[in-house]
Amino acid sequence: EVQLVESGGGLVQPGGSLRLSCTASGFNFATRDMSWVRQAPGKGPEWVSSINSRSGSISYADSVKGRFTISRDNAKNTVNLQMNSLKPEDTAVYYCKAILWGRDYWGQGTQVTVSS
């Protein structure tokens, strides 16, 4: 069974930092590209960042470029998202996502709230 479990969300003031983690199981993590996607209240999903299987190719949405850093540890089956200089518009539920066998798999999400 595929499982993606996110952690690390919380309430942070503008300008603060959070580090999200996603632990994967049920598939060969080291061979799969991984992504982070977020969904703000009342809005559709927004792609945030992706990293390929060997960390050789990384991409970011323009809205987070220069502030967020994606990384992965294939030995621990984890993908991380370091978020710095957080803004109120970063408030959302953050999901890690994998595309496996032609379909999307999402975790349950972790809430990030940026507010003073």
SS elements, strand count:
11
Mean pLDDT, all residues: 96
Q: Could you list the spans in which at least 5 consecutive residues all have pLDDT below 50?
A: none
β content, as a range?
Answer: over 45%
Q: What is the radius of gyration?
A: 13 Å
Shape: globular
Q: How many strands, what sense, and barrel or not for the largest sheet?
A: 7 strands, mixed
Which key features would you list for this structure?
single chain; 116 residues; mainly beta; seven-stranded mixed β-sheet; four-stranded antiparallel β-sheet; 11 strands; globular
General description of the model:
There is one protein chain. The chain has strands at residues 3-7, 10-12, 18-25, 34-39, 45-51, 58-60, 68-73, 78-83, 92-100, 103-106, 110-114. By secondary structure, the chain is an all-beta fold.
Topology:
Layout: E1 3-7, E2 10-12, E3 18-25, E4 34-39, E5 45-51, E6 58-60, E7 68-73, E8 78-83, E9 92-100, E10 103-106, E11 110-114
Parallel strand pairs: 2-11
Antiparallel strand pairs: 1-3, 3-8, 4-5, 4-9, 5-6, 7-8, 9-10, 9-11
Question: TL;DR?
Answer:
With 116 residues, this protein is mainly β. Helices cover 0% and strands 53% of the residues.
